[in-house]
Amino acid sequence: MKGVNCIEPVIQHSWDLNESQAIVLQKELALKVIKEDQLKQVNYIAGVDVAYSKNSDRLVAAVVILDATTQKLIESNVVEDISNFPYIPGLFSFRELPPVIKAFSKISITPDLIVCDGQGVAHPRRFGLASHLGVLFNTPTIGCGKTKLLGDYEDPGIKRGDYSTLLDSNDEIGIVLRTQNNVKPIYVSIGHRISLPTACKWVLQLAPRFRLPETTRQADQLVKKSLTLLEKIKKDNKR
DNA sequence: GCGACAG
DNA sequence: ATCTTGTCGC
């Protein structure tokens, strides 16, 4: 869908790939990742989430746009789709990004920052979902994982704001960040066009009361609601 | 060979 | 991710 302010990929590539082709593409696109701050003034922040139907291969993707200051929901879009790629650790973006890009196509506000549910450069080829989305949209992104994919770390302190570094051999690939006192930390990494300290600053700011940033929380609520509705409609159609 | 493995 | 079971808190 073409619109005045639609956010659309600046890079196009096929999604109909096998496992080894996808890995080749990741290595190629990983060269484009920028690990420095290139943010304009951050007025709008996007959050993204995907949920799956239990039986079939159906999925629902949601994009939310929050006001960066008030953290209130400004705009959202939900799309239903079919998953064409299996879940393979390290190739997560090939499963989830096609519906996410579809969901973005009907969003009128161009976000200044996107917070992703998944890793950025904390990835075997330094190209997790957040980096992939960032490079395709040429937009600053933050990778925000609930569990780690790769790396070693010491447990951070138990207070909100405590952190430790996530290391892959000698590479600092991310930060293990405690967003709430005594709550399991989250794994923050550079997606694209942002530095690690700035990424952490935003994640902490976006998670004032909960473990995860407001962006992911709100997107999560939306997809679950839509999925429930979808299953109900499917059930009603059977009668 | 064995364990680890974003969602 | 989703499912399942149990527990706590509003």
Automatic annotation (TrEMBL):
<keyword id="KW-0234">DNA repair</keyword>
<dbReference type="GO" id="GO:0016891">
    <property type="term" value="F:RNA endonuclease activity producing 5'-phosphomonoesters, hydrolytic mechanism"/>
</dbReference>
<dbReference type="InterPro" id="IPR007581">
    <property type="entry name" value="Endonuclease-V"/>
</dbReference>
<comment type="similarity">
    <text>Belongs to the endonuclease V family.</text>
</comment>
<dbReference type="GO" id="GO:0000287">
    <property type="term" value="F:magnesium ion binding"/>
</dbReference>
<feature type="binding site">
    <location>
        <position position="49"/>
    </location>
    <ligand>
        <name>Mg(2+)</name>
    </ligand>
</feature>
<dbReference type="GO" id="GO:0003727">
    <property type="term" value="F:single-stranded RNA binding"/>
</dbReference>
<dbReference type="Pfam" id="PF04493">
    <property type="entry name" value="Endonuclease_5"/>
</dbReference>
<protein>
    <recommendedName>
        <fullName>Endonuclease V</fullName>
        <ecNumber>3.1.21.7</ecNumber>
    </recommendedName>
</protein>
<keyword id="KW-0540">Nuclease</keyword>
<keyword id="KW-0227">DNA damage</keyword>
<dbReference type="GO" id="GO:0043737">
    <property type="term" value="F:deoxyribonuclease V activity"/>
</dbReference>
<keyword id="KW-0963">Cytoplasm</keyword>
<keyword id="KW-0255">Endonuclease</keyword>
<dbReference type="GO" id="GO:0005737">
    <property type="term" value="C:cytoplasm"/>
</dbReference>
<feature type="site" description="Interaction with target DNA">
    <location>
        <position position="87"/>
    </location>
</feature>
<dbReference type="GO" id="GO:0006281">
    <property type="term" value="P:DNA repair"/>
</dbReference>
<keyword id="KW-0460">Magnesium</keyword>
<comment type="function">
    <text>DNA repair enzyme involved in the repair of deaminated bases. Selectively cleaves double-stranded DNA at the second phosphodiester bond 3' to a deoxyinosine leaving behind the intact lesion on the nicked DNA.</text>
</comment>
<feature type="binding site">
    <location>
        <position position="117"/>
    </location>
    <ligand>
        <name>Mg(2+)</name>
    </ligand>
</feature>
<keyword id="KW-0378">Hydrolase</keyword>
<keyword id="KW-0479">Metal-binding</keyword>
